[in-house]
Amino acid sequence: VQLQxxxxxxxxAGGSLRLSCAASGRTFSSYRMGWFRxxxxxxREFVSAVWWSDGRTYYADSVKGRFTISRDNAKNTVYLQMxxxxxxxxxxxxxxxxxxxxxxxxxxxDYWGQGTQVTVSS
Length: 122
Prior knowledge:
The protein has strands spanning about 1-5, 10, 15-25, 30-40, 45-50, 55-60, 65-70, 75-80, 90-100, 110, 115-120. It is mainly beta.
């Protein structure tokens, strides 16, 4: 099983990036896919999640209205469209998958990707 995160980079404040998380190795149709981030010296925090089965979404308050999570069943890929980026969004972003339980809790996710760096300059 592999989750491959990509799409990070350096962007100016107010800019946009789209992260991708390509899933392989099993069927993820029953899974909940989450995005987390971790900034230097800070704890990992929940960003957003999508239920693969029905597309239901959930967002942290800090990104609501700026970020959009989606999934492409045919490509087995989850996306995180990030608009109006702020310097405080700078972090390593990770995608993860879990079969059940609270999507905002990092512990309990079954699979994690390797992370992709997002840097937002002011």
